[in-house]
Design a protein that fits this description.
By secondary structure, the protein is mainly alpha-helical. 84% of the residues lie in helices and 0% in strands. It has eight helices and no strands. The chain is globular, with a radius of gyration of 23 Å.
């Protein structure tokens, strides 16, 4: 009888251990999956801003060939990351927001192929703004779920860099309202702050320091060009330098992503 009781107790202990391991593995998987959702949200944000930047560069004959290349890549990137977000979404509010994003994205895809004029250009600005805001909100929601509050916002810098060129060229095109100027200044201020955060980040590896150092060197040279939006006259420089800044930050972000993933795996053990 005692042996049977001990066998039952042992079986219960083993089952409990297996369940605990299963829960731990599930928790680890969930955190990493949620982090990928955060990345997807910001990737959609970057893609939306790149679409806007490219639309104005093509319409205003500024680096048209490169603009078309970046536009096509951004459309593909947005679709890819959007599908990933839809597949993983379980929350009703996020699902509703994703449905709203799809409506805006489908309208934007049609609009960027129509003749370039100020009415269409203003609509593109509005649609890109909606997609960017929705994408950031989804990323922020997922960050709260896993308590992700690192001072480095992994890819929050790149979409703001892209928006600088978008607003600069849009302003030169004739959308010279106070909102365009205000959003440009806000984007420049955001980039200034977040480049400094990356430079001072204690977790940087030597390679990360090198990557963000190059971004900072270029930023110090070109920042004033962006702030002189009312003077204008530098659309090619603005387009090219924002692309260079984005690509430099992309190198840093890729290495930072690996640090975060390793940290999440460790915290889930």
């Amino acid at each position: 009888m005692k042996n049977k009781i001990m066998m039952v107790i042992r079986a219960i202990m083993i089952m409990t251990l297996l369940v605990s391991v299963s829960i731990a593995e599930s928790s680890k998987k969930d955190k990493l999956e949620v982090y990928e959702d955060i990345v997807s949200g910001y990737k959609c944000n970057i893609a939306a801003e790149t679409i806007g930047k490219s639309y104005f560069s093509i319409g205003e004959n500024v680096s048209v060939r490169q603009g078309r290349i970046e536009m096509n890549k951004a459309l593909i990137a947005f679709s890819k990351r959007y599908i990933m977000l839809v597949k993983s979404a379980k929350d009703k509010k996020i699902k509703n927001l994703l449905s709203f994003m799809l409506m805006n994205y489908n309208e934007l895809k049609i609009l960027v192929k129509k003749p370039y004029n100020m009415n269409n250009a203003q609509l593109v600005l509005d649609l890109v703004g909606s997609l960017s805001e929705a994408s950031r909100h989804i990323a922020t929601t997922y960050k709260k779920q896993i308590g992700y509050n690192d001072p480095v916002n992994r890819v929050g810098l790149s979409p703001k860099i892209e928006s600088i060129a978008k607003y600069y060229i849009a302003y030169q095109a004739g959308i010279k309202d106070e909102n365009t100027l205000a959003m440009m200044k806000k984007s420049v201020d955001f980039c200034e702050k977040n480049i400094k955060i990356r430079i001072n980040y204690a977790g940087n590896t030597p390679e990360m320091n090198k990557a963000i150092g190059k971004v900072n060197e270029l930023w110090k040279v070109v920042k004033q060009f962006y702030l002189d939006i009312e003077d204008g006259g530098l659309p090619f420089i603005v387009f090219r330098t924002t692309t260079d800044l984005k690509n430099g930050n992309k190198k840093y972000a890729k290495m930072y992503k690996e640090l975060v993933k390793a940290r999440l795996k460790k915290s889930s053990k």
